[in-house]
Structures are given as structure tokens and as C-alpha cells.
Automatic annotation (TrEMBL):
Superkingdom of origin organism: Bacteria
PANTHER family found in the cross-reference section: ARMADILLO-TYPE FOLD, DNA ALKYLATION REPAIR PROTEIN
Ranges in coiled-coil conformation: none
InterPro entries attached to this UniProt entry: ARM-type_fold, DNA_alkylation
Organism in which the protein naturally occurs: Cloacibacterium rupense
Identification of the protein by name: DNA alkylation repair protein
Pfam family for this entry, one: DNA_alkylation
Amino acid sequence: MTLHDQIFEALQFLSNPEKKEFLPYFFKTGKGEYAEGDKFIGVVVPDSRKLVKEFWQKAELHDVQEILKSEFHEMRLVALLILVNKFEKSKDKTEQKSLVDFYLKNTKYINNWDLVDLSCYKLLGRYCFENQKDDVLRKLSNSENMWEKRIAIVATMHHIKKGKIFDLTKELVLNNLNHPHDLMHKANGWLLREIGNKDEEVLLDFLKIHYQNMPRTTLRYAIEKLEEDLRQDFLKGRI
């Protein structure tokens, strides 16, 4: 039995009927929605992570490729988490680069917000930060594909957490500030909030210049942790 089949069998065993029914609605798989046609087995992320612990060392990249091509969302998540595990455990720069190259060649399968958010900054973000490859993220930010744009901005989480370097995040937020989709508004606001968690003054300086041109969702996410009176000042345009 292939590794793909072993993981698929294990996921079916872990399937929760209620989750199987709920997840397609939660992840917007209906006609015309952002994940139209995606299929779910009905497995929660903690259970998927258990499988990753069991299988990641056995998986070669050709196995990961087969798993990642699956029509089932949880299979793709397991494949991406295996990649993250391999990257985090590796001390070999050549191997790390091969994992990043694989990730970048397969972004068409990273096609929902959770698949992006649970993989990109721990792998691609860290790699770009440690190897001065931020132009990789700039290129993704300029992509026509929304998920690649989201990969770019969320990947800067590593820069914020580890390097306390905020300029790239601010640059990429502005690059897609008025993107038409709410999922980009949320991602941009989330990463701005993360800047504020590290240095509130940096966030405030940025907001004072740009908040009146932001989508409302981005602003709400960005100011979520601010003191209430200050939040209201931003929301009501009194800054």
C-alpha cells in the first residue's frame, strides 16, 4: 500500500460525520464560492497533525506530491504539514531549498486559507528571512492568484515574530490593500495586528497614514488589540 493510500485510509478512520457535513460550508465550497468543489473527509486539524507525526519521516517528495494532488482537503493539509515538519527538522541548507522549491512549484494545491496559514510562514517565510530572499514574497504578492498573494503576506509572520522587521509586511499590505476579496482584507489586518503586538507605535504610525483608505475589515482586524477609546477613534475617523 502506498503512503498516499495509508494516509487516506487513516483519515477515513478519523472522519467525524458532523465535521464532514459542516466543513464544506465553513470553507465555502459552494458554486461560485472561493473553494468551489473542494471535498472533505471530516477530520479536524489536531487529528491530521497526529498523522503527520506518524508519517513525515517515511514520506519522500514524490509521496508528498501524490498526497498534495488529492481532491480531498485534509490530504492536502497533511502533505503541507509533512513539508513543514521536514523543513523544520532539516539542518541541511540544500534540502531546505529543495523543500521550498517544491512548495513554490505546487502553490496551485495550496488553495484555501487554512492550507496557506498553517504552512507558509513556518517554511517559506522562515526561508526567505534567513536567506534574504524577500523578493520571492514580493513576486507572490504580485501574482494574479489570491492564494499566492495570501501566502506572501502571511509568510511575513516569521519576519515579525523572529526578526521584528516590519517593513516587508507593511509593503505587502499596501500592495494588496484594496484587493477585492475579504480573505485578503482579513490577512492584511491580521498581519498588521501582529506588528502591533510587537510594537504598537509602529502600527499606529502606519494606521494614521493609511487607515482612511483601508477596507473596513482590514482596519477592524488591525486595531482589535488597541485600547477601546483609540479603537473607536479609528473606526469613527477621528484620528
